[in-house]
Amino acid sequence: PSASPQAAVSDSVNGGTDLYPIATLSWDNGNDTWMVYLTGDIPVGAYDAKRLSNIGIGHGAIDAGAGYTYLGQKTGHEFSAVAGLTYNLENPQTNYRNGIDSHLDWAASRFLSESWQVGIAGYVYYQLTGDSYPTEGVIGRLRQQELGGFRSRAAAVGPERLYWDCWPDRG
Length: 171
Known about the structure:
Strand order of the largest sheet: 1-2-3-4-5-6-7
Largest sheet: 7 strands, antiparallel
Helix content: under 10%
Order of helices and strands: EEEEEEHE
Structural class: mainly beta
Strand content: 35-45%
Number of helices: 1
Shape: elongated
Radius of gyration: 21 Å
Distance between the termini: 67 Å
């Protein structure tokens, strides 16, 4: 027995996820490869704002960006970076809209053999504009007071170890 009351909360859902169409264009010249992409979220997945568990995100989004990879095919050195911007549409069930965000993924590594690669990788996420949401009523005013123009940001860096079952295409 515990002196403080505790409540068990759980939820589950079955269903399909949102659709994530993607279009990419890439080209290379020797050790250099460039890429541009356009993707998004079509909110058709199982989503209900009153549920704790959801498979879909409940709103549409568009993400566009570009990337670059250097692969020294003789030395095994590799560097990649992809940067993008995401524009989010309003969630019609909650009237909440995430702000525009920017993101950068990068990695620098070296192939030790045809199968093993080690290096360092990182990620930076920075929300450029604040979220928007209803602010009327007591709950809306409390939300505005606590969150303000809420903007997320995150960064991470760490080691990476990869195993390939084949050496990347040598052209």
